[in-house]
From TrEMBL:
Keywords annotated in UniProt: Amino-acid biosynthesis, ATP-binding, Kinase, Nucleotide-binding, Transferase
GO cellular component: cytosol
BP-aspect Gene Ontology terms: homoserine biosynthetic process; lysine biosynthetic process via diaminopimelate; threonine biosynthetic process
EC numbers, comma separated: 2.7.2.4
Family matches, as SUPFAM superfamilies: ACT-like (SSF55021), Carbamate kinase-like (SSF53633)
Family from the record: Belongs to the aspartokinase family.
Domain of life: Archaea
Name listed for the protein in its UniProt record: Aspartokinase
Length: 458
């Protein structure tokens, strides 16, 4: 029985060796047997993207390093592709891709530098090699498949070659014209995650973690019913399970909640992962192959009202103090303008009603630079600029939009030692407490137990 179109994305945490490709191929075969039409999106083999970036940054000894990557893919192919005919074919395809990669890296080494587009092209090989291998593994499991780069699949993006902006209007008809005929023939398209192309055909990238984003983009353009993001954990957790032993899988999230968690770095998701499918009927499921647990993300969400606690480290609070701030129109704009001119991203801004101080949360490595500039440029109205290290402990959940729920969280957080300040806006699904760095996980554990776990539904 036909069950609609599903986009299945397999991450590098799964695709670390032959067993990962076998597991992924078997999962796709199962979905096909259940009646789904399937589009597959793959990341590079685990660690390969980082290695390619390191080769670009430090090309010394690049050739043996590339050969180690080559042997990883060849070894995975020999283990994942059981058909002799398919193995011979994919080894030839991998060899062709590696020849191209070696030539590009050699050219960069000779010239001594690389353009942004050349660097993007080199880094894209992790996904391209992975897609070729996945297609062969699928065919070896009786599933007809063909691989395409993100550019060949029709995803058009412009701008920064490392963080290109997708052109939705241009991409949708291109993706549909490239992929729908393949799908209608009963063939599974295997598309490189993370990779897109310009109108002129140059390769660009969608930012780290961009394979999830690729999957939801394709789902939007093709009108898919569901996206499944396969990873090495059975879903999004209520907290980091490596730090809090009582962390558990969240069963349901709204898109708004999921976007906040992505921006906070949960599951290493691309911040734009859910953007393409917001306002559509497409569901996103996060799980691991063979698991009975998963996190379902859609426009509705569901209980409980509070979903997760996330710790963000490496933050500093830069606080501008002075009576000259009081009643002066445009002071906050001047302060943030200094940060903007320095290219420093402001994570949060806080100001009491007395207007005697303004605090900016920024990454720790940019705090002293910002403080120095603020002292120099605003010394006529500022008496002091303070810098203190902090961590952010965030509580996420649509229930925070309700006054009784948010009030309870504020009360609990305010009663904990080590809390510097609390930031929340009415209608927001996130409440942030800035805390002493050495208290962050203890505070996170208390908030997890006292305001998140109390809503547990078994």
């Amino acid at each position: 029985m036909a069950r609609g179109l599903l986009v299945a994305k397999f991450g590098g945490s799964l695709l670390r060796d032959a067993s990962g490709y076998i597991t992924a191929a078997q999962e796709v075969a199962r979905l096909r047997q259940e009646g789904y039409q399937v589009v597959v999106v793959v990341s590079a083999m685990k660690g390969v993207t980082d290695e390619l970036i390191e080769i670009l940054e430090s090309p010394s000894g690049w050739e043996p390093r590339l050969r180690r990557i080559m042997e990883r893919y060849y070894s995975a192919a020999r283990g994942a592709v059981s058909s002799e005919r398919e193995l011979t074919s994919v080894l030839g395809e991998l060899s062709r891709l590696f020849d191209e990669l070696f030539k590009l890296v050699w050219a960069v080494k000779v010239i001594g530098e690389a353009t942004g587009n050349a660097r993007a092209a080199i880094v894209s090989f992790g996904e391209r090699l992975s897609a070729a291998l996945m297609a062969a593994a699928l065919r070896s499991n009786g599933v007809e498949a063909v691989w395409l780069g993100g550019r060949e699949a029709g995803i058009i993006a412009e701008g920064d070659p490392w963080e290109a902006v997708v052109d939705y209007e241009a991409s949708e008809p291109m993706v549909r014209s490239k992929l729908l005929p393949v799908i209608e023939r009963g063939v599974v398209p295997v598309v490189t995650g993370f990779v897109a192309g310009t109108r002129e055909g140059r390769i660009v990238l969608l930012g780290r973690g961009g394979s999830d984003y690729t999957a939801t983009l394709l789902a939007r353009f093709l009108g898919a019913d569901e996206v499944v993001l396969y990873t090495d954990v059975p879903g999004v957790m209520t907290a980091d399970p490596g730090r809090l032993k009582n962390a558990r899988v969240i069963e349901r999230l709204s898109f708004a909640e999921a976007m906040e968690l992505a921006l906070l770095g949960a599951k290493r998701m691309h911040p734009k992962t859910f953007e393409p499918v917001m306002g559509t009927s497409t569901r996103v499921r996060i799980t691991m192959p063979g698991s009975s647990q998963s996190t379902l993300v859609d426009s509705k969400g569901g209980p409980p009202p509070l979903k997760a606690v996330v710790v963000s480290e490496g933050i500093s609070l830069v606080t501008v103090v002075g009576g000259g701030l009081v009643g002066r129109i445009g002071t906050a704009a001047k302060i943030t303008g200094v940060a903007a001119r320095l290219g420093i991203n402001i994570l949060a801004i806080m100001q009491p009603i007395t207007e005697t101080r303004v605090s900016l949360a920024v990454r720790r490595d940019s705090a002293e630079k910002l403080a120095k500039a603020l002292s120099e440029e605003l010394g006529h109205i500022v008496s002091e600029v303070e810098v203190e290290d902090a961590s952010a402990v965030s509580v996420v959940g649509d229930g925070l939009r309700e006054p009784d729920v948010s009030g309870n969280v504020v009360e609990k957080a305010a009663g904990l030692g080590g809390v510097k300040s609390i930031l929340w806006a009415p209608g927001s699904p996130i409440l942030v407490t800035f805390v002493e760095p050495d208290e962050s996980w203890a505070i996170a554990e208390k908030l997890h137990e006292e305001v998140v776990s109390q809503w547990r539904i078994d």
